[in-house]
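> forwarded from #structure-qc
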């Protein structure tokens, strides 16, 4: 993998373990020549991981919508900054640039981005590895909800299995490097009349 998008919070949270995970992931990227594509912010987890990679002379590409291009939010020191008209444009551009997705702890925006990536893979629009760095069990309840969705018949197990999960950076990246996309789509290509 040469470029990976990282979805994460615009806050660092209350527990330093999340910030430490962002630093560890940033160092992994820089040491393995993986470029990071992200939301373009200089605050929170986004800023921590961007600053870590930049300090190690790695490449960071920020993609930020015009409405968030405020001086206190946007990271002007990134390797490349792409400003989009809309939030939806941001996601399309990110998707075109990258080889995989990683999600760290965050809020609504982070979850929105994660589930959109999963949906693209479920629909076989994309076939990129999607990793979840489950630091400190942060996503445990989210994962339990996914299991409930399978149990109750709203999510197929093979789609649930699209999400690669680990609590360590090395373990997650190894899964992503070994990822084999499903050979055929499970989507029914029929038009209902």
């Amino acid at each position: 993998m040469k470029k990976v998008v990282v979805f994460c919070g615009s806050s660092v949270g209350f527990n330093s373990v999340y910030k430490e995970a962002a630093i560890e992931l940033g160092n992994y990227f820089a040491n393995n020549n993986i470029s990071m594509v992200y939301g373009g912010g200089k605050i929170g987890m986004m800023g921590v991981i961007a600053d870590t990679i930049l300090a190690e002379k790695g490449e960071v590409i920020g993609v930020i919508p015009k409405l968030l291009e405020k001086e206190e939010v946007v990271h002007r020191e990134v390797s490349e900054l792409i400003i989009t008209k809309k939030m939806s444009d941001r996601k399309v551009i990110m998707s075109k640039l990258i080889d995989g997705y990683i999600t760290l702890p965050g809020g609504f925006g982070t979850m929105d981005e994660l589930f959109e990536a999963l949906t693209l893979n479920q629909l076989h629009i994309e076939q990129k590895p999607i990793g979840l760095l489950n630091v400190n069990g942060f996503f445990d309840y989210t994962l339990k909800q996914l299991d409930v969705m399978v149990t109750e018949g709203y999510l197929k197990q093979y789609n649930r299995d699209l999400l690669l999960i680990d609590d360590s950076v090395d373990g997650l990246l190894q899964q992503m490097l070994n990822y084999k996309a499903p050979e055929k789509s499970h989507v029914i290509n029929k038009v209902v009349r």
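QC bot note: Residues 16-31 form the longest helix (16 residues). The chain has a mean pLDDT of 93.
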